[in-house]
Amino acid sequence: KAGVTQTPRYLIKTRGQQVTLSCSPISGHRSVSWYQQTPGQGLQFLFEYFSETQRNKGNFPGRFSGRQFSNSRSEMNVSTLELGDSALYLCASSLGGGTNEKLFFGSGTQLSVL
Amino acid sequence: AQTVTQSQPEMSVQEAETVTLSCTYDTSENNYYLFWYKQPPSRQMILVIRQEAYKQQNATENRFSVNFQKAAKSFSLKISDSQLGDTAMYFCAFMKQNTGANSKLTFGKGITLSVRP
After folding, report:
1. Which residue, among A103, A107, A110, A111, would best test binding to B if mutated, counting the most B CBs under 10 Å from its CB?
2. CA–CA separation, B85 vs B82, rounded Å?
3. CB contact under 8 A, B46 and A105
4. DSSP state of B99
5. How far away is chain B from the Cα of A18, in angstroms, using its nearest Cα?
6. What are the C-alpha distances in Å from A85 to residues A17, A43, B17, B19?
7. Could you give the CA distance from residue B10 to residue A23 in angstroms, rounded to a whole number?
């Protein structure tokens, strides 16, 4: 069974540009959540999608957005990139049907903003 | 809001020895889950162990076990017979139960564990 797949692995952008990251969950998983990891702030929750609907959101500006498709694949978009957006973006999937679930993480996308 | 604190930034242990990683948390919730995740250089977060707050018995997974003290809001991870492959960052994390959005994890800052040969 394939794990959580994130593409691309690495990305370099310049300030002001926008970027789209992709996450394919484990087959059968309907929940996808996104986390930002930086050396200074650590791991912070961005948002969660379940059945194509955003179910929960962290404290990030509106420049950070996401969506989920009918096949549960998810994308997150960051517009008007800032230097501080440089981070490892991790995606996690779970069945999403209730509590006591395990989250399975991908290997992340390393975004560098120059 | 919940907070998770890992006060030790790094630790080192000799191969085959035992090491304990500390974690404290703060919450007003009564029902929740606690986790330890491992992040090796590959960057993938791997679940090491999970504890349900309503369970008094400490969780164990092979060489990994926890000491869960609910009243003290303490959740430490013990790694027995340390192996070179245990070298990684370890994160303590908290999740509320029954929120309808159960995948929101609150993480500590992490601790870098090095296992010496």
Report:
1. A103
2. 8
3. yes
4. S
5. 24
6. 11, 13, 40, 35
7. 31
Q: Rounded CA gap, A66 and A50, in Å? A: 12
User: Which tens digits make up the pLDDT trace of A10-38?
Assistant: 999 999 999 999 999 999 999 999 999 99
Please report, for residues A7, A55, B7, the alpha-carbon distance to residue A24 in angstroms, rounded to integers and kept in the order given: 9, 18, 34
B59: Cβ–Cβ under 8 A, 6 or more apart, which residues?
A: B49, B50, B51, B65, B66, B68
Q: Answer for the pair A74, A91: CB distance below 8 angstroms, yes or no.
A: yes
Using H for helix, E for strand and C for coil, what is the string for A53-114?
A: EEEEECCCCCCEEEEECCCCCEEEEECCCCHHHCEEEEEEEECCCCCCCCCEECCCEEEEEC
Residue A97 backbone phi and psi in degrees, to 5: -85, -15
Span A58-102, pLDDT tens digits:
999 999 999 999 999 999 999 999 999 999 999 999 887 666 678
| CB spacing of A48 vs B43 below 8 angstroms | no
